[in-house]
C-alpha cells in the first residue's frame, strides 16, 4: 500500500481489525513517519451452487433472501434476521473454504436457522425448498415441530 503523503511504496501495517465486511488497517510509512488508516474489502471466494438437476450457478444472495422473505410473510421475522441468515450462509462456506455447495446443503442450513427463529416460516421455507414431492416428507417436517404449533396461519 503506497503512502498517500510521500508516495513511498512500502508502508507497514501496525494493526488490523475486522469492521463490518472490511478490514481496517492502521499503517505507518517508514519514510515520512505519517500514519494512516485503510479499509480493505474482504473478498469472499466465489461460491457456486449445484442444483438438484446438476446445473451449477453462482450463489445469489438476493435470490436466497427472496426465498426466505417469501417464507416469512406476515411472520414476526425481521429483515435484519433474514440478512443475518444469509450472512451466516456466506460466512459458513467462506470459513470452510468451500467454493461449491448444493442447494440442499444451503436449504438445510437455512432451515436450521429459521426453525429457531420462527417455526411457521421454517415449515413454509421447507415446503418450497425441499419441494416436498412426497407427503411424508412434509408431514415429518411439520411433526418435528411438536404439537404446540398446529395449523397456525393456514
Ligand atoms: Zn510517507
Radius of gyration: 22 Å
Small molecules bound: zinc ion
**Number of structural domains:** 2
- First-to-last CA distance: 58 Å
- The main sheet orders its strands as 1-2-3
Helix % is 40-55%
Report on the biggest sheet.
3 strands, antiparallel
How many strand units? 6
Beta-strand content bin:
15-25%
Q: Whole-number average pLDDT? A: 82
Low-confidence stretches: 147-154
Overall 3D shape: elongated
Order of helices and strands: EEEEEHHEHHH
Could you state the oligomeric state of the chains shown? single chain
| Number of helices, counting only DSSP H or I runs of 4 residues or more | 5
Q: What would you call the structural class? A: alpha+beta
Topology overview:
Layout: E1 11-19, E2 22-29, E3 35-41, E4 48-50, E5 56-58, H1 61-71, H2 79-95, E6 100-102, H3 103-117, H4 119-129, H5 135-143
Bound molecules: zinc ion (ZN).
Task: Describe the protein's architecture and organization.
By secondary structure, the protein is of the alpha+beta class. The protein folds into two domains: 31 residues, no CATH class; 102 residues. It is 41% helix and 21% strand. Strands 1-2-3 form a three-stranded antiparallel β-sheet, with no helix packed on it. Strands 5-4-6 form a three-stranded mixed β-sheet. Helix 1 packs across helix 2 and helix 2 crosses helix 3. The protein is elongated. Zinc ion binds next to loops.
Amino acid at each position: 500500500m503506497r503512502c498517500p503523503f510521500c508516495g513511498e511504496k512500502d508502508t507497514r501495517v501496525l494493526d488490523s481489525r475486522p469492521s463490518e465486511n472490511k478490514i481496517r488497517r492502521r499503517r505507518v510509512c517508514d519514510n515520512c513517519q505519517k500514519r494512516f488508516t485503510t479499509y480493505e474489502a474482504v473478498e469472499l471466494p466465489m461460491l457456486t451452487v449445484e442444483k438438484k438437476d446438476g446445473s451449477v450457478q453462482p450463489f445469489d444472495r438476493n435470490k436466497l433472501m427472496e426465498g426466505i422473505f417469501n417464507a416469512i410473510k406476515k411472520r414476526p421475522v425481521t429483515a435484519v434476521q433474514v440478512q443475518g441468515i444469509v450472512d451466516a450462509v456466506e460466512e459458513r462456506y467462506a470459513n470452510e473454504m468451500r467454493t461449491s455447495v448444493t442447494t440442499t446443503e444451503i436449504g438445510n442450513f437455512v432451515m436450521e436457522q429459521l426453525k429457531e427463529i420462527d417455526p411457521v416460516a421454517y415449515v413454509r421455507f421447507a415446503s418450497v425448498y425441499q419441494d416436498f414431492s412426497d407427503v411424508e416428507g412434509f408431514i415429518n417436517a411439520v411433526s418435528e415441530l411438536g404439537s404446540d404449533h398446529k395449523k397456525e396461519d393456514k
